[in-house]
Amino acid sequence: MKTFKELKKAGRENLKRHYLLFIALILLASAIGTSLTGFFELMGSNPENELGQTVKGVFTNIFEGNIEEALEIASGNKENLSGESYKIFGLEFGHQDGVLSDFVNMQASGSFFAALASIILNISGSATVVVILFSAGAFFFLVFFVVFISETYRVIYTRMFLEGRVYSRVDTSTLTYLLRLKKWKKVSLAYLHYNIRLFLWFFTLVGLPVKFYAY
User: Model confidence over 118-151: pLDDT tens digits?
Assistant: First the structure.
């Protein structure tokens, strides 16, 4: 059995070998988040960014049923984007030239979602229907992202960290190993099953901490 000093030395050597890889894995985990933090920041939680705030205004008005106001804000966003580029959390949005400029500007300004809300309103004749459909869409997107992306990524980066302890070189293709093995769906559903069971144990209070470590 290795001594504590030997374990520390092995840990330092492991970190030196895979420093850049480990940093990249952590940054990627931070980017996709496990609670969609990045998504909500992009929606405009940065008060210093005018575009971020107005895009947030588009979605806020849609969810409040104010479709006309959402269209007006989105239209203003698109005009601003056609004149200059904006940065939100270091990412540049808005392009003046190029074949895809209109498509990119439409997404970045929120005008796509405002137009979609307007179409649903014209068909249904009810702002309540728009709110319900957009709320349902946001919910299913959140569930899909958490189950199939962020939670499954935990498995991937954990494996890569463990491989880093054993091998002198860790192949970055490990990031897609679940896809190659056709196990992505199975792992995602297993995590979903785990989280549902853990959530149900929450109602027993005493069982939650016990089962958290048991699982």
Answer: 999 999 989 999 999 999 998 898 888 888 888 8
Cβ 82 vs Cβ 76: under 8 Å: no
**Token code pair at residue 81:** 């984007």
Cβ(104)–Cβ(52) below 8 Å: no
Longest dimension (CA), the chain: 72
Q: What backbone phi and psi angles, to 5 degrees, belong to 194?
A: -60, -45
End-to-end CA distance of the chain: 27
Q: Bridge partners of 75?
A: none
Q: For residue 87, which phi and psi values (nearest 5 degrees)?
A: -115, 130
What whole-number distance in Å separates Cα of residue 153 and Cα of residue 51?
Answer: 30
Instruction: Dig out the tokens for 87 from the structure.
Output: 């940065």
pLDDT in tens, 68-125: 888 888 887 766 665 555 554 444 554 445 555 555 556 566 788 888 899 999 999 8
Measured CA to CA, the distance from residue 50 to residue 56 in angstroms comes to: 10
Q: What is the CA radius of gyration of the chain?
A: 23
Supply the pTM of this predicted model: 0.61
What's the helix, strand, coil split of the chain in %, to 5?
Answer: 80, 5, 20
Residues contacting residue 2 through CB under 8 Å, at least 6 positions apart:
10
Give the separation between CA 96 and CA 86, rounded to whole angstroms. 11
Burial 66-76 (b: 16+ CB within 10 A, else e): bbebbbebbbe
